[in-house]
Design goal:
It contains eight helices and eleven strands. It has 235 residues and is of the alpha/beta class. The protein has one domain: Carbamate kinase (3-Layer(aba) Sandwich), CATH 3.40.1160.10. Helix 1 links the parallel strand 1 and strand 2.
Length: 235
């Protein structure tokens, strides 16, 4: 296996499946089976999941809501998704722990770095909810921060696109995909991979990011095995 410990970043929108809102149970099950397969290979896996299928803080703020309040609502949305993913993973026999950056002791453990690492060492999937626990930071930044804190080998950003392209492949059919690209090239070309805070944090800590299509069954395993899947961003 190419990677021993990974941080998987999933977007909330990915959980919608073909729906316009909420959580698609069949999509959750697809993800859970892919995660179970890599766990059975001995890989240590942590997950950060967004909340955009339920509520986006930025959108709430743009409609006149207080930004701090809106971001807290977004953090709660990530916990709803985290609970749903935890339930589905445990249904298929994967041991999990849900940790929250905001104290919610009735439903999740508080985020404690040493405890999270111990769970990973014991073969449990750790789901990190509530983002960083602070407004004005995205779940991309939370994913990067948690990956660094737990000494992950790589951030795997699971999207619906199979990598990074010269332009949006859904709008431009002539867009060309990169197999590998440096952080500096992403900056200079103005490509959108993660928000700039998260991206800079990854670059400064020499943490590679691999963008791939999570919706293609078996792709997560291919990535773990080091096959040519998606686009790798590194220094």
């Amino acid at each position: 296996m190419k990677y021993k410990r990974i941080l998987l970043k999933l977007s909330g929108e990915a959980l919608m499946g073909d729906q316009e809102f909420g959580i698609d149970g069949s999509r959750l099950l697809e993800y859970a089976m892919q995660i179970k397969a890599v766990m059975e290979e001995g890989v240590q896996l942590a997950i950060v999941i967004g909340g955009g299928n339920i509520f986006r803080g930025v959108q709430g703020a743009s409609s006149g809501m207080d930004r701090v309040q809106a971001d807290h609502m977004g953090m709660l949305a990530t916990m709803i998704n985290g609970l749903a993913l935890q339930s589905t993973l445990e249904e298929v026999g994967v041991r999990t722990r849900l940790q929250s950056a905001i104290e919610m002791n009735k439903i999740a453990e508080p985020f404690i770095r040493r405890r999270a690492v111990r769970h990973l060492e014991k073969g449990r999937v750790v789901i990190f909810g509530s983002g960083t626990g602070n407004p004005y930071f995205t779940t991309d930044t939370a994913a990067t921060l948690r990956a660094i804190e737990t000494n992950a080998d790589v951030i795997l950003k699971g999207t619906r696109v199979d990598g990074i392209y010269t332009s949006d492949p859904e709008k431009n059919h002539d867009a060309v995909k990169y197999d590998t690209i440096t952080f500096d090239e992403v900056y200079s070309k103005g490509l959108n991979v993660m928000d700039m805070t998260a991206f800079t944090l990854s670059k400064e800590n020499n943490l590679p990011i691999l963008v791939f299509d999570m919706n293609k069954p078996g792709n997560l395993m291919r990535v773990i095995r080091g096959e040519k899947v998606g686009t790798l961003v590194e220094n």
